[in-house]
Amino acid sequence: MARLPFSLLLFLFIFPLLLDVGVSKTLKRDVKALNEIKASLGWRVLYTWVGDDPCGDGDLPPWSGVTCSAQGDYRVVTELEVYAVSIVGPFPVAVTNLLDLTRLDLHNNKLTGPIPSQIGRLKRLSILNLRWNKLQDVIPPEIGELKSLTHLYLSFNNFKGEIPKELANLPELRYLYLQENRFSGRIPAELGNLKSLRHMDLGNNHLVGTIRELIRIEGCFPALRNLYLNNNYLTGGIPSQLANLANLEILYLSQNKMSGVVPPTLAHIPRLTYLYLDHNQFSGGIADAFYEHPFLKEMYIERNSFRPGVKPIGIHKVLEVSDTEFLV
Q: Hey, which family's this protein in (predicted)?
């Protein structure tokens, strides 16, 4: 019997493997979860989610907003982005069964109700974007179990209660956006232990307490660049220790009930670029070092109790940056 050529034998060996890769299926757990989500979201996404397999099947493409990746012999859902389509209803709990998610973006919809406690199951999640919805209730402490989280966007909702100290358990967190909610109580000083945190926006809430309480941990906020605490009910003065935040570029304290003098040490923050102190109860004067700062572009000091003759900087050129969010 004639022997088959080696090249043909090699092809007969490899072809089934290639065929097997070509027909790899999506993990049943993810298929079930996405179809449950599809049923709960309603008609607004149904027309783009065709077929039974969210990762695509045969000639059918993956569902819009769904990103899948190969994991062994299966495909798993790693990203879910369904935003600005006016989804109405409660947060789809089935999302928490997508255990390989790294990005969840449901922003600019009309989701209501609380974030389910099961959110803590998404251990691989790095970006959670739920801003611009109508979510409410308290943030579940289980959100502190998302150890891979780098970006947390919960702004422009109706969350209430205290900011959970469990957020300090997120070692990779870089961006924390909680502005425009109804949070109350004191800001957890434990947040100062977040070594990677660059931007924290807690503006437009009902927070109380003092900045001294926030920075009482030695070496706190080592990477923080932007700190927004505007439009709350903070009291007390600006502690000189705030100057220890050497990377700070934006400090936004407008519209609070703070008082006392502005410590000259703030002018020693090397990268300070924007300083907002307006609409408080500060008194005294402004050190010349602020006017001589090489990077300070604008400082707002109006509506305080500074002594006559203090020159405001930038009073006629208001810079709107409080709603800026850096999503990557």
A: Belongs to the polygalacturonase-inhibiting protein family.
Q: What is the 3-state composition of the chain as percent helix, strand, coil, each rounded to the nearest 5? A: 25, 25, 50
> Rounded to the nearest 10 degrees, how much is the dihedral formed by the CA atoms of 83, 86, 91, 95?
-40
* DSSP class per residue in 266-284: GGG-TT--EEE--SSEEEE
Exposure string over 229-253, b if 16+ CB within 10 A, otherwise e = bbbbebbebbbeebbbbeebbbbbb
- What residue type is 91 in one-letter code? F
Kindly state which CATH superfamily the domain 66-306 is placed in. Ribonuclease Inhibitor (3.80.10.10)
Distance CA 250, CA 144 (A): 26
For the chain, the domains span 66-306
CA distance 38 to 53: 11
Q: Which of helix, strand or coil describes residue 116?
A: coil
